[in-house]
Specification:
The protein is α+β, with helices and mostly antiparallel strands. It has 6 helices and 11 strands. A hairpin with a 2-residue loop joins strand 5 and strand 6.
Length: about 190
Amino acid sequence: MPRKIKKTKKKVKKPSKKNQKSKIPKVTFTSETIYSNKKQAFNLYEKSRFGEKKDGKILYSYPEALFLLEKKKIEVTDGKKKLNFNLLLKKLKKNDERIETKYLVFKDLRQRGYIVKTALKFGAEFRVYEKGKKPGQVHAKWILYPVKEQDNLTWHDFSAKNRVAHSTRKNLLIGIVDEENDITYYEVTWKKP
């Protein structure tokens, strides 16, 4: 007579919410900066180059903070109040009316595997590194200007942006966001005749 096999379910331990949350860096928002001094923030920087190390902290650009918050990689607080994506975006709009356009372009490129960093010292919005390349190891290939499709860009503006790219030995990349939030990129390079 065949033996009956008793079926048992093996219990798989799931990480507790307490342990899971401790792996997410807590980030502080002030009217000027978004930063963290937590070990998890430094780990995230080393792994994916989010933020900039400065004075014992990791400072996040506005688009970086929005991206990480949307992906649930950080928690953002303003004082004791925890901010969700929409609330943080609303606060950031007070300091930067173009934050949505910048964020859409930043998000698109990060999701495609590029590292995108601020480029204010170059007179541009962003520096973009080739896939697999990290800041500190190589120089950025592009400087990027995100614009809305309905924005006016004069030849003078275009020439100035191109001059900045050329003087920094980078290619100019313009990310144009249309009304459906789709993004088209145009790369401008210098050619010698």
